[in-house]
Amino acid sequence: MTDRPTPARATPRRKPLPSALNVITGALGLFLVVLTLLALQVRSGNDPSLSGGTSTSSGTTGSGSKAAAAATRAVVTKTS
């Protein structure tokens, strides 16, 4: 039997970091995808901030509609 020399242990290679162009392209692509999804949500009418649901602001009284709140609001004008 012959003695085999033990192979030297190879140092693990580190993966190279992504280039700046790859990072910028990925971030911009992700931003555009999210922006498109939000635009589709608004266009379909599912945006909760634009819906005519009940309002929690202190200016409305009871009904929650904007017309009722506008009718009870006083308009003050300054005359000289």
Describe the structure.
With 80 residues, the protein is mostly helical. Helices cover 40% and strands 0% of the residues. The protein has two helices and no strands. The protein is rod-shaped. The model has no long low-confidence stretch (mean pLDDT 78).
What is the helix tally?
2
Please compute the radius of gyration using only Cα atoms. Answer: 32 Å
- Relative strand content: under 5%
**Helix and strand succession?**
HH
Overall mean pLDDT score? 78
How far apart lie the N and C ends? 114 Å
Give the number of DSSP strands. 0
How does the helix and strand content classify structurally?
mainly alpha
> Could you say which overall geometry the principal axes of the C-alpha atoms support?
rod-shaped
Q: Detail the poorly predicted runs.
A: none
Question: Portion of residues in helices?
Answer: 40-55%
Q: Major sheet: size, sense and barrel closure?
A: none
